[in-house]
Amino acid sequence: MSKGKAREAWPLNDIPKIPLSASLHKASIITGFSRDAIKNLIAQKKVTAIEYESKIEVSMWSLIECLNLAPVEVLKELWKQSA
Fold first, then answer.
1. Which of 2, 34, 50, 75 has its CA 20 to 30 A from that of 40?
2. CA distance 28 to 6
3. Backbone phi, then psi, for 11, in 5-degree steps?
C-alpha cells in the first residue's frame, strides 16, 4: 500500500470520471494503492492489464472490482447510462 491512505469506496459522482484504463502510476494515484501492490494483483491475475513497450496499462474497472471500491452492479449501470 502507498504511504497515503488507500480509498475505501468511491463516491457515485466520481465513478463516471474514472478512465477505463490507466498507466500503473495513474492507477496508483487514483486508488491510493502502491504500484507494487497493483503489480502483485496483476501477477496473480486478479486484475486485467496489458503490457506494451515496457509500460503497463491497467483496466480500472478490473482494479476497482478487485479492491471492492465499488459494487459491480453500480459499475454496470453507470456504464450503460454513459453509452
1. 75
2. 9
3. -65, 140
Task: Please give the grid coordinates belonging to residue 57.
Answer: 496499462
The predicted-structure confidence for 34-80, as pLDDT tens digits, reads as follows 999 999 999 999 999 999 998 999 999 899 889 888 777 777 777 67
Range of the domain at 29: 18-82
51 DSSP β-pair partners: 56
Residue 83, Cβ density class (10 Å: 0-12 exposed, 13-18 middle, ≥19 buried):
exposed
Answer whether residue 3 is part of any domain: no
3-class DSSP state of 18: coil
The pLDDT confidence band at residue 11, using thresholds 50, 70 and 90, is low
- Total domains in the chain come to 1
Q: Cell 449501470 maps to which residue?
A: 77
Alpha helices in the chain (DSSP H): 24-31, 35-43, 60-66, 72-82
